[in-house]
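Hi R.,

Here's the input for the 2-acetamido-2-deoxy-beta-D-glucopyranose complex you asked about:
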Amino acid sequence: MGHKPVQNGISTCTWRYLGRFVTIGVYAAVALFLWYTLVPTRSKERGAITLKSDSRDSNNDLEVSPAPVHTKNVVIYAATQFFGHPITTERFLATCPDVQNYCRITQDESEFDNSDAVLFHNADYRGTNEKYKKLENQRKPGVPYILWSLESPSNDNFRPESHMINWTMTYRTDADVWAPYGTMVKRKTPIDFDLNALWDSKKKSATWLASNCFTQNRRFDLIKKMIDKGFEIDIWGNCGKQAPQCSGVDNQESPCVLDLIKPYKFYLSIENSNCKDYVTEKFWKALNDRMTIPIVLARKYYKDLGVPDSSYIAIDDFGTFDEFMTHIKKVNSDKATYLSYHEWRKDWKVIIGSGFSGWCTLCNKLQDKEYILKHPKSYKDVAWWHSFEMCNNQIASKYL
Ligand SMILES: *[C@@H]1O[C@H](CO)[C@@H](O)[C@H](O)[C@H]1NC(C)=O
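And here is the predicted structure with 2-acetamido-2-deoxy-beta-D-glucopyranose in place:
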């Protein structure tokens, strides 16, 4: 048996004591990330940064996407659909056209025998199905079976056989193929940023756009309490009112959503579930083109991803709800304090991923067949790896 991932649960309170190691880990992760980004060729996995940068930002000095020099053609067999929709090369490798020259996705079962990897999207997997039994019995050692998940463990019913899955492809930093919703990188050279203009553009207090109102972590209760204590928050979407200027408010990509949110100073960026490394697009967008200060529930999730401390407000930094309220009211009204949360814009850059950002990386990782064969690994209990054990939905209760 190959290397097995560590299976011990880490309890919430142990995290606190691990803080120091986490900090070191974050630095290491950032260093590794920069190395990955900036060094064109690596011996084992050829480097390609696959996250898409905001195209309106001309400072693209951090993006290097070298295509491997000698590439082998690879085929990924997608054994499931994606939330009931086909998984196609065109859609899933859209952000990396160069990679499409040598990498292809197929859903045709007759190509299974010649595929270089077999991929399952967790939400579409039906373990009892004959087809999956066959895939289990006919596997080849050099062909990794991959679990792909975009969602927090709250939506996961993926229960494959033990050791069926070799690699994971998720937003988690310890996934075999890391596919974050976004990330932040330090700029090589700081840029000028007009903070005064930003302040002048901020006419409104805080906003929240959400469709999932009743979640285990009780984020809505917390937001309602903030409103009760006199902090102005406009709630859009299912949990609030429909935005008059755009009816399709659920579509985050729509330009009207950007116009809707940009005049606000703060964005309530509380995930529907608080789980290890689970930080979705809304947080990254709040920082990036929406130009708000995200208010998050717990600092550690963002610190773990290397996000600079001064770019967001974390509720759990405060001993009591009232202390937190005093602080945000101050940030709301005091220009200098407000702008101190935007200073990072000069030195850092947000790179927006998408749930699909892992595919391009995966194509690269599949290039080195020999390495893959010599370094087998599999998950004894991948369902545990992607389970509620990785979440803490009790954080808000202290403040309610
Ligand atoms: C995948 O897991 C299976 C079962 O544990 C193992 O036999 C195989 O060598 C692994 N393959 C890779 C590429 O890790």
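One thing worth noting: The mean pLDDT is 84.

Cheers,
M.
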